[in-house]
């Protein structure tokens, strides 16, 4: 179980945040990175969160488990987080496209917390999906 969780962290989460790390290194190279939050100020962490959640839910739905209630709670929580991420990102993107002001500081400050909640839920989904049943 531990190897599959580590593989998910390395390949799933690692590859998801890699573009942010690369964007940060490019900004840093051009002396334009004043804060790491600049790499997610347009809702990038929301998209990453949504992708990780959707993938983890897909794994959990296909998994056989005796913990049906836990599975239902995790899928419902993930669905709720996916909806929040979708609406929030849509709002940020629509503001950027239309040129309307939006609370960029709020996105910078709150989206890492949202990402952590999504990461926790995704990790729980992955752990439950690979959990060995004891008989």
Largest pleated sheet:
none
Into how many domains do the coordinates divide? 1
End-to-end distance: 17 Å
How many distinct helices?
A: 4
Q: Please identify the structural class as seen in this structure.
A: mainly alpha
How much helicity do the residues have?
over 70%
Strand content: under 5%
Our Rg estimate from Cα atoms comes to 17 Å
Shape: flat
The SSE string, one letter per element, is HHHH
Number of strands: 0
Query: Which residues sit in consecutive blocks of at least 5 with pLDDT less than 50?
Result: none
The assembly state of the depicted protein chains is single chain
Report the average pLDDT across residues: 91
Characteristic key phrases:
135 residues, flat, 78% helix, single chain, mainly alpha, 0% strand
Overall description:
- With 135 residues, the chain is mainly α.
- It has one domain.
- The protein has 4 helices and no strands.
- It is flat.
Detail the topology: elements first, then pairings:
Layout: H1 2-29, H2 44-62, H3 68-98, H4 104-130
Helix pairs in contact: 1-2, 1-4, 2-3, 2-4, 3-4
Write a compact overview of the structure shown.
The chain has 135 residues and is an all-alpha fold. It has helices at residues 2-29, 44-62, 68-98, 104-130.
């Amino acid at each position: 179980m531990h190897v599959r969780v580590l593989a998910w962290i390395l390949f799933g989460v690692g590859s998801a945040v890699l573009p942010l790390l690369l964007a940060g290194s490019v900004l840093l190279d051009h002396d334009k990175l004043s804060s790491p939050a600049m790499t997610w100020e347009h809702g990038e962490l929301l998209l990453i969160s949504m992708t990780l959640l959707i993938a983890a839910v897909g794994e959990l739905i296909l998994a056989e488990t005796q913990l049906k209630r836990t599975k239902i709670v995790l899928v419902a929580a993930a669905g709720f987080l996916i909806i929040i991420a979708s609406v929030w990102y849509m709002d940020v993107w629509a503001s950027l496209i239309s040129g309307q002001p939006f609370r960029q500081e709020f996105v910078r400050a709150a989206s890492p917390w949202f990402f952590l909640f999504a990461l926790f839920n995704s990790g729980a989904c992955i752990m439950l999906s690979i959990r060995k049943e004891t008989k």
